[in-house]
Protein: Cytochrome c class I
Amino acid sequence: MKKMLMIPGVVMVLMLANPVMNAAQAQTKKKAQAAAGAKASPADIAAGKELLSTSDCLACHKVDVKLVGPAYIDVAKKYPANEANYNKLAKKIIAGGAGAWGDIPMSPHPALSMADAKKMVKYILSVK
Ligand code: HEC
Structure:
C-alpha cells in the first residue's frame, strides 16, 4: 500500500521540477543563440572580402602566405571570431601600428569606417 502512494508522489515531484528544467534549457539555448549572433553573416563576410580587394590590404597581406603583414589564415588562427575581436582588429586596421606580430607596423587607414573595417575583419577571421 505504501508503495502505491509513492508513485504519484514521484510523478508530482517530476512535474514540479519540469518547469525549472525547461527554464534552464531556455537559458542555455538563449546563450547559444547570443554566441551564434556574434558570428558573421555570409553577407558581411562577402562584403568584407570585396572591400579588402578594393583597398590596399593585399599589397601587404595574402590569405595563406606571410608578406609584410601576417597571412590572414594566421590572423584567423590567433583570434576567435567574436564581437570583441571584430572591434579590436577593426580599430587596429584604422589606427595602424605594430607589436602584435613583430616590429613592422601596419599603415593606418583613417578613411575606413568602423563598419567597413569590421566587415573586413569578419572575412579575415572566417578564412581557416
Ligand atoms: C603597409 C603594409 C600593410 C597594409 C597596406 C595593410 N596591412 Fe594589415 N598588417 C600589416 C602588418 C605589418 C601587420 C602586423 C602588425 C603588428 O605586428 O601589430 C598587420 C596586421 C594586420 C592584422 C592583425 C592585427 C593584429 O593586431 O593582430 C589585420 C587584421 C590586418 N593587418 C588587416 C589589414 C587590412 C584589412 C588591411 C587593408 C585595409 C591591411 N591590413 C593593410 C601590414 C599592412
User: Anything to note?
Assistant: The domain at 42-124 is CATH 1.10.760.10 (Cytochrome Bc1 Complex; Chain D, domain 2). The first helix runs from residue 2 to 37. Helices lie at 2-37, 42-54, 57-60, 72-78, 83-95, 114-124. Residues 32-37 have pLDDT under 50 and may be disordered.
